[in-house]
Design brief:
heterodimer; A: alpha+beta; 6 helices; B: mainly beta; eight-stranded antiparallel sheet; globular
Chain lengths: 188, 138
């Protein structure tokens, strides 16, 4: 049985790993191996090219650690790149993300890691701050951490009304929000 | 492209295309919300512009797309229930006659609250749905 999971190429410095969820993988992997792959991680192509049944648990665990670290590194690198961004980066006078927004964004990375949920993109927002976005098929979610310290989240499924709310910068509210994003993005 | 002394033209037909540029496209093939502004989104109007003019003067590695004037979301309400309407206005620049901006109005006045991200993000998320991509970012 060969796994066939579509992973788009990284296209810019702000792109992080593709979002691959456990239940999406389980369509392709035997149940005993699907549980070994972290939610929200890009699956290495050397795994995808193999006959899944021949991969040992140990091999998957090693790949898992490597992929997880790579995802974290890419997100942190994207945030570091945003630290170098200048005002008027878009030609429409938007301010670059400031220290407050970037510090909040860094805290989100910690929570992404804990949740095993990784954004597809890290980008500067024209509304001035840092944006993390997630998408899968026709579902899309965005977290924006603004320069004034506010945080807003939207979930949207194509053709439906978006759900939008604000949260404060607290561990519990961030964790609740990520749980809701995870359920939304990964639900069938 | 240059204004060359031409006056403003505030007549927009519903079918006229409004071009805008963006740096990020989501994996679902739509413009990322982070690229869409609530107050004063800059666009180039089709009547006086070719689509790719939106990349001038130095954003040629960015993507661009369009929506029709009639597609600007019009079903947004403030927390007090008062509707927020959006209007595109021709704001020609000397080097870009087609330049226009989309502004929110509430009770007849331009509306740009310093607080209240929820309404802004709702509008921007709906706007995203309407934008068709003509060129992806490089």
């Amino acid at each position: 049985m060969n796994a066939t999971v579509n992973i788009q190429d990284v296209y810019s410095g702000y792109k992080t790993s593709g979002l691959i969820c456990k239940d999406q993988l389980s369509k392709h992997l035997p149940s005993q191996t699907s549980q070994k792959v972290y939610v929200g991680l890009e699956v290495p192509t050397n795994i995808l090219s193999k006959d899944i049944s021949s991969i040992s648990d140990k091999e998957i665990d090693i790949q898992k650690e490597s992929v997880l670290q790579d995802s974290i590194n890419r997100i942190n690198q994207a945030i570091n790149d945003l630290r170098k961004l200048k005002d008027n980066w878009n030609g429409y006078e938007s301010a670059a993300p400031n220290r407050k927004a970037l510090d909040i964004a860094e805290q989100f990375v910690y929570h992404f890691h804990n949740k095993g949920l990784y954004p597809n993109h890290v980008a500067p927002s024209v509304e001035e701050g840092v944006a993390f976005s997630f998408s899968r098929e026709n579902k899309y979610a965005i977290i924006e951490c603004y320069n004034d310290g506010e945080i807003a989240i939207a979930l949207h499924e194509s053709g439906k009304e978006p759900k939008v709310w604000e949260i404060s910068f607290s561990d519990s509210e961030i964790q609740d929000a990520l749980e809701e994003i995870n359920l939304f993005i990964n639900e069938a | 492209m240059y204004r060359n002394g031409r006056p403003e033209d505030q007549c927009f037909l519903p079918e006229e295309k409004l071009f805008l540029r963006f740096q990020v496209v989501s994996d679902d093939g739509k413009v990322d919300v982070s690229q869409i502004k609530f107050y004063g989104q800059s666009v180039n109007r089709e009547k006086y512009s070719k689509p790719y003019y939106i990349l001038f003067p130095n954003f040629f590695h960015w993507g661009y797309g369009y929506l029709h004037v009639r597609e600007i979301p019009d079903d947004i309400r403030g927390g007090d229930g008062i509707p927020i309407k959006f209007k595109v206005e021709h704001e020609p620049l000397e080097e870009n006659y087609s330049h226009s901006s989309i502004y929110p109005y509430k009770s007849g006045k331009q509306y740009n609250p310093s607080r209240g991200r929820k309404i802004k993000l709702e509008y921007r998320t709906k706007m995203r749905e309407k934008i068709r991509i003509l060129k992806n970012p490089d």
